[in-house]
Automatic annotation (TrEMBL):
InterPro entries: RAYT_transposase, Transposase_17, Transposase_17_sf. It comes from Candidatus Methylumidiphilus alinenensis. It holds the Pfam family Y1_Tnp. Residues 9-127 form the Transposase IS200-like domain. GO terms for biological process: DNA transposition. One of its GO terms (molecular function) is sequence-specific DNA binding. This is Transposase. It comes from the Bacteria.
């Protein structure tokens, strides 16, 4: 039994990692990335949050959310997103009735300060390069990187060299 405890802070900013069941390349199909976006938008309408940054890779995703003041319930939001998405993609049904689309749990990390935020933002945007999918973050289509370039947070050529602030991070 795990003794992992989630830290729920109303209005908090969180980094998340979600992984597909058995690391299946579920998001290698463009239509499934779009279905994930639809699921996220649908839940945001019912239970608002701000999607600060995100990257979707073939077998996992990372993102940063900011929750509304007075609201700390990211777990219900993820359950709703995973459930909605799972209804629209094929998957085997386990004996307990659960569909095998996602790993049962997800990783969360409360962002503690500006340095922590920047490290996790860099981690998200460098992830497609880290996994060898592209040579630079700007080449990956399913990422918020270009939005951050547009607002001046990154130069367009950022990530050609591995950023030193993510060397010791592993949220896979």
């Amino acid at each position: 039994m795990s003794d992992y405890r989630r830290l729920y802070v109303p209005g908090g900013t969180y980094f998340f990692t979600l992984v597909t069941y058995e690391r299946n390349n579920l998001f290698a199909d463009e239509s499934r990335v779009e279905k994930l976006r639809q699921s996220l938008r649908g839940v945001k309408k019912k239970r608002p949050f701000v999607m600060v940054a995100a990257v979707v890779l073939p077998d996992h995703l990372h993102c940063i959310w900011r929750l509304p003041e007075g609201d700390a319930d990211f777990s219900t939001r993820w359950q709703m997103i995973k459930t909605d998405f799972s209804r629209h993609v094929p998957g085997k049904i386990r004996k307990d009735g659960a569909k095998t689309v996602w790993q049962p749990r997800f990783y969360d990390h409360l962002i503690r300060d500006e340095d922590d935020f920047r490290r996790h933002l860099d981690y998200i945007h460098y992830n497609p390069v880290k996994h060898g999918y592209v040579a630079t973050p700007g080449e990956w289509p399913h990422s918020s990187f270009k939005r951050f370039v547009a607002i001046g947070w990154y130069p367009n050529d950022w990530g050609i060299i591995a950023p030193p602030d993510v060397d010791d991070m592993d949220h896979e």
